[in-house]
Amino acid sequence: MDSNLLKVFVEVAKKKSISLAAKKLKVTQTNVSLRIKQLEKNISFELFHRVPKGVLLTKEGEKLLPLAEEIVDKVKEATSQIRNIKKQDSLIIGSTYSNTKMRLIPLLKKLNKDHCEIKLELVTNNTIALTQMLLEYKVDIAFINNEPKHENLILLKKFDNDLLFIESKKEASKKTILGHEGICAFFNASKIYYEYLGISDYEVLEMANFEVILACVELGMGSTILPKSIVQRYGYLNKVKITKVDKSIVNIPTCLVCRKNNVPKISTYLKKVSLDE
Questions:
Q1: Three-state DSSP class for 34?
Q2: How much is the pTM?
Q3: Which of 234, 145, 155, 221 is nearest to 184 (CA)?
């Protein structure tokens, strides 16, 4: 059975739509439709019911889906392992936006110095997206917030973050939490800290990046929690009022992780590497 046809089938089943699957796979809708028809011809069963809003799996399709997902995952795993079967010639690194500012540059410098033979690729996103990319073999390693919970992911190295509650020196900070995005770990940490302070009637305001957040805190528009390294990097340690957050209240380590079955050849190096600039 052609694994490429199964890959298309799995994507259509996930999206419940030919058009959305085509967009995800970066092919035409006609291409997707033809591949589904080819797969249905090969197994002599219809896999989808066509409905006005998209497609739904038939009973046969429901039975095939878990098997198809397993085959597609095995092909991805084999491809990944064969790519580095002799040596680690490439490494796709995922990183959260905050860690890009804190540790990614030091890592790149060390890798270029100690393993110049490795071709590096970089991807930045949030922890949820990076976790999914690891599971789908789209990145080899990733810096995420907190230890991984998925059974197929393992921890290579953990970095502690000194978290600071940041307020304006000049103005009384409004009861407003300033954050990067709703799913940002530090944004959620701010909410936990507000609860610890007994503040429940607060507003939240999302902003484009950490530098903008810090500037707005200085102006008295609100408060936030960020790692000390980010506050220091942007030169705000002496511009704002800071309170160290006890780890018993909230703790967000940065964790370097990978798949259990896709451990980089240089994993020992990565476990020992120091990223202090």
A1: helix
A2: 0.68
A3: 145
Domain membership flag for residue 17: yes
Is 193 exposed, middle or buried, given 0-12, 13-18 or 19+ CB atoms closer than 10 A? buried
Q: Is 277 a domain residue?
A: no
Residue at 71 is within a domain: yes
Number of domains in the chain: 3
**CATH code at position 100:** 3.40.190.10
Q: Which two tokens stand for residue 37?
A: 């028809």
* C-alpha–C-alpha distance, residues 50 and 141, integer Å: 39
216 lies in the same domain as 175: yes
Convert the pLDDT of each residue in 81-136 to its tens digit.
666 555 568 899 999 988 887 788 888 888 988 988 888 999 999 999 999 999 99
CA angle 222-223-228, nearest 5°? Answer: 145
